[in-house]
Every structure is written in C-alpha cells, then in structure tokens.
Predict the 3D structure of the following.
Amino acid sequence: MVGSPSRLPTFGVLYGVRGKKEALRSRKGNNETKGIVMENKLYFSPEIMEWYRETLRCFGSERVEKSPTDTDVLCPVHGDRNPSLGADLRENGRGPKVVLNCRSQGCEYQEILDAVGLTTTDLYYHEEPNGKPSSAGCTIAQYARAKGLPEDFLKSDAVALEDTEWWGVEAVEIPYADEEGDYVLSRYRISLAGDRKVVSKKGDTVMPYGLNRLDDAQEAEYILLVEGESDCHSAWHRGIPAIGTPGANTWKPEWSHYLDGIPRILVIVEPDGGGRELWEKVVAVDSLFRRLEKVVLS
Ligand SMILES: [Zn+2]
C-alpha cells in the first residue's frame, strides 16, 4: 500500500520549528552558520545550538519558542496539550545543559526523561574528542519512542532494526539492502541526540538507504529523497516511498540511476539548513533535474 503525495503534510511533524533568525548573530560577523550572542555575552556555538534543537526534537514537533534558548515543549508525562514543559538551554559548571521544568503539573524529572528515552547525561552537551561515542547509547525502544514509531514496525522484516552494541554502548543496527532486498551492510545508531548519531564500520562503502523499496516508488510514481535513515522510517511507516542518503551531504551522482523511471522526486529541505546541500547536489545531475521538486518544511 503506497500513499499519495497529498499525504505529505503529515511528514512535517518530523521537523523542528524554525528558529528566530533575527535573534541570531555571528560572533565573528561572518557568513558561517550562526551561533548565538546572548545579552550577557554568553556564547553558544552553532554545534551547541544544533545539539539543543536535536534534543528538543525528542519531545515532538509542537513547541513554543520564546527565544533561541528558551523553548516550551509538550510534557510527555501528563498528557500536555499546550506546551508547558520548559526546555531551556543554560550554562552551568559542567557546560551547556538543557534544563527541564514542567510548569503546569510539576512532573517528576526522571519520569519526563524516561518517557522520551533520554538520560541525565543526554541533557549535557559533550565534546567528542576522538571519535568515540560520548553518548549513553540508543536502543530500539528509545528510538521508537523518540520518533513516535511503533517498535513492532521497526523490528519487522520491513525495517529489521536490531538492538546491538557499538564500542561498549547500546546501539541500534540499521541494515542496508540492495535492490533485490539482499543484505549489504549495517550502520549503527549510537545516540538519540548530538552531532554523531549514526556511524559506519571503518572501510564500509556508502550507499543509499532503502534501495529494496524502489518498487514501491515505481508504483506510486514518486519518491521522497531524505537525509538519514530516521526520516525514511517515518515515511515508510506512513506508506510513503522514500530513499535516504546515509547522513548529510553524501549523495553521489552515480546513485542517480536508482531513481530511473520515477517521475517525481521530492527532496526534503529543512529551513535550518539540513537538506540544502543534498538539494544542490541532486539538482546538478542532468538526469534528475526535470523530475525534482523541493519540499521546504517550516
Ligand atoms: Zn508534566
């Protein structure tokens, strides 16, 4: 069963709310991704801001942004309908931290964390000095809760995720298949939040995610092109044919033949920058150019 493009707006729940760009100013005044200069001169780097936004995403898409560092999200514990859980970015002795406070019901801190599959450690920003995972790991159950997807679906043959280990931390194995559905390699989700969420084994080749589902796209006559595996999972669960790049900015022109015969290719571009480089890469491919449509989520 394959959905129609008219169902696409539901896909928007995956994405964060656009930041208040006017409040962002670069410390150096250059054109690189903007960090934040607070009135009290406290500086949060672009990496920290991205980590903060990623952490907010664990609480779903509905939120009120009061400032770039002050956000109200839905409390996962008490059946919140209007965002009343403060999730603010602060600096304390251990560095940047997300501070949670359920203002309407005073829900227990630990219950809130459990409900979204985060740990106290996840609420602190960690530098990653030597490429080893700094996170507390990730299980299918946590991943399912954070993405609002059924665990059964993720473990089913359709996706075939498995709980495993990566350098001593819990990880979710994400198998990649070829067009025939034969297993080729795996990538590993090692964290729910942070800069480095999915990793590959050294020496493994890179390939698009979801090649075994191209038949669905042929039948539906469109496909969603997304960055990363998790957007594929969300799309597939909604019956939307999708193919993903393994991480950001990795589309290779020689992959374009996989999309032969699919009349519409919808590229998801997030306002905060995710997907923009993917768009620039695919739009430069002659054989794709006429079939591309940019879907900008806000
Ligand atoms: Zn609450």
Notes: The first strand starts at residue 36 and ends at 37. The helical segments are 46-57, 109-116, 140-147, 151-155, 214-220, 229-237, 276-283, 286-289.
